[in-house]
Every structure is written in structure tokens, then in C-alpha cells.
Write a structure and sequence with these properties.
42% of the residues lie in helices and 9% in strands. The chain is mostly helical. Helix 4 crosses helix 5.
Length: 174
């Protein structure tokens, strides 16, 4: 769909859109160079740059803000983590609908569902330089970044435990 502003001849502050006064970004949006220059010299721009300036304690102002707003940051992170968990567990559920993959199981409570390695090869998911296996949000993030690779399923906590018990019994018999 073409941009509705492509026929404009002037920016909103009245500067003419001529080749010498236009900056075009990679999406094709046009920006007035005069307005950009005025913004860079404005108090708002200075305030924005201050966020990344280092304070006398050696911390950036952004890190200071984060420390002062820890509850807000944590709530936002928790919301993002919950959405990620829903996305990943739904993807690995039967038919893309959130639920346990064990035949006959009707558990759909996201707090009771886990991501399971079908072939019990979780030892393969260790980040370089680390000793711990990926689990929880780190594993969910890895799965999304890697375009949801095969080899996973969604199981409820009970059936995940049942699978482990069955495997232990089979190993003892051998």
C-alpha cells in the first residue's frame, strides 16, 4: 500500500520537500533535514541523549532509571515472558492449540504445561561456555529464535514426570 504522504510537497513545519532537504530511510519514509537538525538541538533531544550518558557513579542514566523502576520493569518482563511461553507451548501442542500432547490428557492450564524433549536429548541444549542446560524462558527464547525446531512437545507436569518414570523403569530392566 503506498504511503498516503508521498504527494506532500512540504513537511508539517512548512519546509519544502526538495532533494537537498530530504532524508529517506530504508522503509521509504521521508524526513525533513531542517526539522531533524532543529530536533537535534532541542531540549528533548538532549534529554534523550542523557539516558545513555554515564553518571558520576559510572552507570548510565538508563540503568539508574531501571533501578528506580524495578517493579515496572519486572512486570513488563513477566508479561513478555508469559506471551512467549504461550506462543511456544501452543506451537508444540497438538493442532497448535494450547494443551498437553499426551493422548487423552485435557490439561490446558499454561502454569501446568512444560516444553519436553521428545527424544530426551535436552543435554544438547547447552549454550557455548555454559554448563547448565537451557530451560524455562531461555529454552522458549531459543526455540523461537531457531524457528521452532522439531523434537519438542508440550506435556503437562504429571505426564512429564510419568515419562521420566517410564524411562527410568525401562533403563533398570536393561
Amino acid at each position: 500500500m503506498p504511503n498516503q504522504h508521498t504527494n506532500q510537497t512540504h513537511c508539517k513545519r512548512g519546509h519544502e520537500f526538495i532533494p537537498e532537504n530530504i532524508y529517506t530511510d530504508k522503509r521509504g519514509s521521508r524526513y525533513c533535514k531542517e526539522c531533524q537538525k532543529a530536533y537535534r538541538q532541542s531540549p528533548e533531544a538532549k534529554e534523550s541523549r542523557e539516558k545513555f550518558r554515564v553518571s558520576s557513579e559510572g552507570r548510565t542514566y538508563r540503568s539508574i532509571w531501571t533501578a528506580k523502576n524495578r517493579k515496572r520493569v519486572r512486570a513488563q518482563n513477566n508479561l513478555g515472558n508469559a506471551k512467549l511461553k504461550m506462543e511456544v507451548l501452543s506451537h508444540y501442542s497438538v493442532g497448535g492449540t494450547l494443551g498437553c500432547c499426551w493422548e487423552g490428557c485435557i490439561v490446558t492450564d499454561v502454569d501446568m504445561l512444560t516444553l519436553d524433549h521428545i527424544n530426551d536429548d535436552g543435554f544438547k541444549h547447552i549454550l557455548p561456555g555454559k554448563r547448565q542446560r537451557l530451560s524455562g524462558i531461555a529454552l522458549h527464547t531459543w526455540a523461537r529464535i531457531n524457528a521452532f525446531p522439531e523434537g519438542f512437545q508440550t506435556l503437562c507436569a504429571n505426564h512429564n514426570l510419568k515419562k521420566r518414570i517410564n524411562k527410568a523403569r525401562a533403563d533398570r530392566k536393561q
